[in-house]
Amino acid sequence: xxxxxxxxxGLVQPGGSLRLSCVASGSIFSIYVMGWYRQAPGKQxxxxxxxxxxxxxxxxxxxxxxxxxxxxxxxxxxxxxMNNLKPEDTAVYYCHAAVAPSALGIGYDYWGQGTQVTxxx
Length: 121
Prior knowledge:
The protein has 121 residues and is an all-beta fold. It is 0% helix and 57% strand. It has no helices and eleven strands. The strands form two sheets. Strands 2, 4, 5, 6, 9, 10 and 11 form a seven-stranded mixed beta sheet that branches. A four-stranded antiparallel beta sheet has the order 1-3-8-7, with no helix packed on it. A hairpin with a 6-residue loop joins strand 4 (30-39) and strand 5. The N and C termini lie far apart (40 Å).
């Protein structure tokens, strides 16, 4: 079993910044990809950013140039630096990880409990 714990959400004014953190713990041999998704009220969950173990990243068009994802493989952690936040960034942000619990290499998907980000003046 693997647990993901997010932190760093909160209320921020438009133009402000927040940094989200996600730490994975449990039966972990390798983490193939870590990512952040978000879900606003009445909308589907969407991918915000993802990073693979080698460091390659991908971003939703709506956050390119404003958000940056990073990870610390030694700490089984991922981070999302969010700058120039806009009201439309308001959502619950979820951490996701594709984890191999053993050397067999089969990966499983895990999710955190979510952290609220509210951008409002």
